[in-house]
């Protein structure tokens, strides 16, 4: 946007740029009496409005999403706009039979996963199992029109299901008032969609960046542990189980209801769990055999249902899903709930599940886009996911997004476009219309085993070890979200983790690095003397690098630290050769911003050093820093001899001026 | 701390450092086939424990407060420790008669201010006037032993009084239960002291840095407006006045009780207000006449008391202070309140008044220290102020700190040491013992006039204009704290302003600057081509500067922005000379940190660019960034030809390697 003004003289002139033109520089304090200095430039003059526009463009449109529209005819712009808002118009014209064949294979594969997972995840959210199937039908169709990822497999996911189940069940237990619970679930889904679409439309996508990867690793592991333990209900056949979500009540509830354990359920449950975990392991070890793990859940459902149906009289202890209604999604817009005492809960649940499902959906989309060398626009994806949830809330669906595990299977099975989602939805449609009675005797234990197999992959201990190795504070953020989710609650665990992450940024700004710089012989470069053994300090100078913007939060610290460097240098000089310090150069290269507190600090520091007859010089202040120094009239107090473009020129010029006036 | 290892070869070797040794460098793409490259160093190896120690030392002891203790004998260390904890031992041995003479003059001057202000500010906090005098007696004595500022004049201040008055009065109006109110005030003072001393002892002084100057300007102006409007009660003689603190109830209460306005009070009040404002103006215009404004409050008190006493029968409308008890501070430790329903309010009030009074005290101490060329240790000052408030809470004092206006008078009157506080306290002592009956007929209106004169100086509209000119976001922080205090409440106004300030830091990190760099001819330096017109782009390269640490909050943004720069460069090349881009160099000089999300981004970016056959090169990654690249094994994927110490070497080396293998 801003660089076009410079395009004209893009490469003009000589310099190192032109390798056929050798340049010889002679650098020495003695021969450089007529040193050619470079002025430090102010950035190009702009009005407040222009600056605001530029800043807003950088904040909200970093990817310049409309660049394709530049210099196009009116009709072409219309087509581009249509393609921009409905990516289906982009790929549909070039769709071919070859692509369709791949998409059918992958669509059927993910459908075989989506049906058992949909039923299971709905149970995780304390919803009737059929809601999970409804949610695997409408949202994928909407996404296939609006979405820009080719590999995302849309449907209910474990984390969002768990969080919705927990947050709503705390206020209105499903068993007490199923109809109110259902209303709140659809309302929360509606608000999740509104929130997601709003973030996308306002281009506030960066909000989800605040859930750092470290935070998510901890959060997902904590959620996976809780979810797995909760499945003990199904695997052990317990009837009266706690509805709480912390680890302690869940475990104590398991032990308390020992009398309800059913050995038939336990044996069958753990056998199928072992089978599913084994196939999962095979699928992970040998990527070519991914279909083993993809087909296992449906195979288990069929096998277990057959077993229970055939030996019904003997296996009466085993709880089953029961009768499921045939037919398509009923409309549910009349069930949305916009008033009354539980509205707040619905909105809160919507925002939290909305942000979590968005994070998962965007991350999955980006991952597979990067693997297959295309780009997805985060903000457009948010709009797609948001509209899909709003539409879902009006057609008996709860929160959906792109699932990581199913998208991976989708990509492995050779999905080429979003049509695989349409194939999947069609398969679910057939199931809903004709196959529902078959699930009557599907045992609950198999759903528990499927959930455990799905969430166990969320426990990413390898990443945790890597975090410990690379970044201790990220590790702390990870652990705190893990234990927060496990022992306190999902929203508080998340809040703690976000707090730790923000604190980390603030700590970095509040206590920045400062270092003494020395010259690397044979170059014009000055580097940290602690790190580069060859870097040489310059006598009579102390050259300090400050590695952060100077803000209210660190200006006092930076001042104290600079004064301490000077004091230490003076003490060393006094103890050794007895020569004196004359000039302090601050390398401002990494000082990327300054505020009014920082400006006041610079001014005060200059005064303090002047009283001690030390010269303060700034080297290479950045554009915005120069501008602010200028606006606050501090630049004038420095004058021409107080600001240099490079440390090297400052050292050469100042030492030669000392020679001139001894 | 860390640099001693390098001290040995402090200045050894040649280089620019030694001006008698000229160095000639020949730089050219052709002659530099055997280019001597500089390795990018990792920082010195340190264990996790050593790193943690170093980091903690930087966070908590930036000023290395114990450096004076190094290499000293045992006895000397004891003396130093005594001086460290009780600064009185530092200056007392050298105290002289000349110093005492100055301190007596300044001590008497500030006493003449402290007595009327003490009474007035106590009224502001809804406390009995005598508490204000008690608070001007004990705390200054404690401070003179523990404090390290020479010019701080200690006593009650307007902001802390206002905030305490508001916060406590909302819960327990003084008129309803004076004894409980008094208990809560002392308890809040106690907790303020504990909080302040704890911050100092734990060296968490940087907490107060989060109240940026911009925030404080807005906050103080808002508080000053509220306080001044509240004084309409005294100036108009209203009896039934609202106890609320927002601007709307205060103004409507003034108009609602119009029938209570007393013309005698109004005439006398506004005359004295005009007199005080005039003397204040004179004192500000001619610093030599500072004594005019310093003496005016006491003179007004004496004059108005005389008038009311003499014309008592005619001026019966005018409300007066009434009987004040003679005698020293009664002990109040038995009134501290450590249980029951109001404990939370007392703690909250204590923390907020504590942090505000600390901010004022430290800022005043630093200002006068800088003016007089000595340093105060912020953390030690916090301990002093904390202990002074704890002691105060046990001797019938409420929150005190260093007052800006009285400290300025103190410095102007020639104070040399903290003894001026002792002189002031002695004068207050005499007043408390003998002169209390004289205040019986002092009219309340004069207290209102004194408060208005004192707080009007807090409205610093010039700073606000400067904020607008220099930093728009600081201006927004200032305005939001101003209006927050005015229309909502003091704690919420403060919270909003701190929120805006923190948001500003996060915004800077979340949306950092990136720029295209070009070579400045004749140097090894690369600068922003937008800012430096002489900077030349290098053909086949795009050199990008990233101006922030790469964190979870900005890694997606930076990736998108870098890809856009590359796309724009490629588009420009395609439209112009048709040559192709081969290499992307990222100048990491200002990338002062990286976390696991940032590392993942760098890895992914490298992969993405490789697929497009573009080489990605990092130039000058900082110490901690190098370390993390190394630990996460990303450095290996770059290899030796992917990381350079300077952009210049990267350009030269890579273009020569292209020549070698065409």
Give an overview in words.
- The structure is a homodimer of 662-residue chains.
- The first copy, chain A, has helices spanning 48-60, 74-85, 88-91, 97-124, 129-134, 138-146, 158-171, 178-201, 213-230, 232-236, 247-256, 263-285, 290-310, 343-371, 378-393, 404-412, 419-435, 444-456, 461-470, 472-488, 490-510, 555-575, 596-611, 623-631, 634-638, 647-660, and strands spanning 23-27, 153-155, 401-403, 514-519, 526-528, 541-546, 583-587, 615-619, 643-644.
- Chain A is mainly α and 662 residues long.
- The first copy, chain A, has two domains: 33-43 and 511-660, Transcription Regulator spoIIAA; 92-505, no CATH class.
- In chain A, the strands form two sheets. In chain A, strands 5-4-6-7-8-9 form a six-stranded mixed β-sheet. The first copy, chain A, has a two-stranded antiparallel sheet with strand order 2-3.
- In chain A, strand 4 and strand 5 form a beta hairpin.
- In chain A, helix 4 (97-124) packs antiparallel against helix 16.
- The two termini of chain A are 51 Å apart.
- At the A-B interface, strand 1, helix 1, helix 9, helix 19 and helix 20 of A face strand 1, helix 1, helix 9, helix 19 and helix 20 of B.
Q: Biggest sheet of chain A: strands, sense, closure?
A: 6 strands, mixed
Number of strands of chain A: 9
Number of domains as seen in the coordinates of chain A: 2
Whole-number radius of gyration of chain A?
A: 32 Å
Largest interface: A-B, 138 and 139 residues
Number of helices of chain A: 26
Strands in their spatial order, largest beta sheet of chain A: 5-4-6-7-8-9
Structural class of chain A: mainly alpha
Average pLDDT number of chain A: 84
Low-confidence stretches of chain A: 1-9, 12-34
Query: How would you sum up the global shape of chain A?
Result: elongated
Measured between the Cα atoms of the first and last residue of chain A, the distance is: 51 Å
Roughly what percent helix of chain A?
55-70%
Oligomer: homodimer
Tell me what portion of residues of chain A adopts beta-strand conformation. Answer: 5-15%
């Amino acid at each position: 946007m801003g660089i076009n003004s410079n395009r004209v003289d893009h490469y003009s002139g000589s310099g190192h740029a032109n390798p056929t033109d050798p340049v010889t520089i002679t650098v020495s304090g003695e021969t450089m009496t007529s040193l050619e200095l470079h002025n430090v430039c102010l950035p190009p003059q702009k009005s407040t409005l222009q600056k605001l526009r530029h800043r807003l463009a950088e904040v909200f449109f970093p990817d310049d999403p409309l660049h394709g529209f530049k210099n196009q005819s009116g009709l072409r712009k219309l087509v581009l706009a249509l393609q921009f808002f409905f990516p289906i118009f982009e790929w549909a014209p070039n769709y071919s039979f070859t692509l369709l064949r791949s998409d059918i294979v992958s669509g059927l594969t993910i459908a075989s996963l989506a049906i058992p997972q949909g039923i299971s995840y709905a149970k995780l959210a304390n919803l009737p199992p059929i809601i999970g199937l409804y949610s695997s039908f409408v949202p994928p169709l909407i996404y296939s029109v609006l979405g820009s990822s080719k590999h995302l497999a849309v449907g209910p996911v474990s984390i969002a299901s768990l969080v919705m189940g927990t947050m709503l069940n705390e206020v209105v237990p499903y068993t007490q008032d199923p109809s109110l619970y259902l209303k709140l679930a659809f309302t929360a889904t509606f608000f999740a969609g509104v929130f997601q679409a709003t973030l996308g439309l306002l281009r506030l996508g960066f909000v989800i960046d605040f859930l750092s990867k470290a935070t998510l690793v901890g959060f997902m592991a904590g959620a996976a542990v809780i979810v797995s333990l909760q499945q003990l209900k199904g695997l052990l056949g317990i009837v009266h189980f706690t509805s709480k979500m912390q680890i302690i009540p869940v475990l104590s509830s398991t032990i308390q209801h020992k009398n309800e354990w059913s050995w038939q359920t336990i044996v069958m449950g753990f056998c199928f769990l072992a089978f599913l975990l084994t196939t999962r392991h095979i699928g992970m070890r040998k990527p070519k055999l991914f279909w083993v793990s993809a087909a296992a859940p449906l195979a288990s459902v069929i096998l277990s249902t057959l077993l229970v149906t055939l030996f019904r009289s003997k296996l009466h202890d085993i709880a089953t899903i029961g009768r499921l209604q045939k037919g398509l999604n009923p409309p549910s817009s009349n069930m949305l709930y916009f008033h009354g005492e539980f509205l707040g809960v619905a909105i809160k649940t919507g925002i939290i599940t909305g942000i979590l499902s968005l994070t998962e959906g965007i991350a999955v989309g980006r991952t597979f886009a990067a693997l297959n060398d295309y780009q997805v626009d985060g903000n457009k994806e948010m709009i797609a996911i948001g509209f899909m949830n709003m539409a879902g809330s009006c057609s008996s669906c709860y929160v959906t997004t792109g699932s990581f595990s199913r998208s991976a299977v989708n990509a492995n099975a050779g999905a080429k476009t979003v049509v695989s989602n349409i194939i999947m939805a069609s398969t679910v449609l057939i199931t809903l219309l004709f196959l529902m009675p078959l699930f009557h005797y599907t045992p609950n234990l198999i759903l528990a085993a499927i959930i455990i197999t799905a969430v166990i992959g969320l426990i990413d201990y390898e990443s945790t070890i890597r975090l410990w190795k690379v970044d201790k504070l990220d590790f702390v953020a990870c652990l705190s979200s893990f234990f927060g989710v496990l022992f306190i609650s999902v929203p508080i665990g998340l809040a703690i983790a976000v707090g730790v992450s923000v604190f980390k940024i603030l700590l970095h700004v509040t206590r920045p690095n400062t270092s003494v710089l020395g010259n690397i012989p044979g170059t014009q470069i000055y580097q940290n003397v602690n790190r580069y053994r060859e870097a040489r300090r310059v006598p009579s100078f102390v050259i300090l690098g400050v590695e952060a913007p100077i803000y209210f939060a660190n200006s006092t610290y930076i001042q104290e630290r600079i004064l301490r460097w000077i004091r230490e240098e003076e003490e060393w000089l006094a103890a050794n050769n007895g020569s004196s310090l004359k000039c302090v150069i601050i390398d401002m290269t990494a000082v990327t911003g300054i505020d009014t507190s920082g400006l006041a600090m610079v001014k005060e520091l200059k005064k303090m050093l002047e009283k001690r007859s030390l010269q303060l010089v700034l080297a290479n202040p950045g554009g915005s820093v120069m501008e602010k120094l200028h606006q606050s009239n501090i630049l004038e107090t420095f004058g021409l001899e107080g600001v240099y473009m490079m440390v090297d020129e400052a050292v050469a010029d100042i030492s030669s001026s000392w020679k001139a006036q001894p």
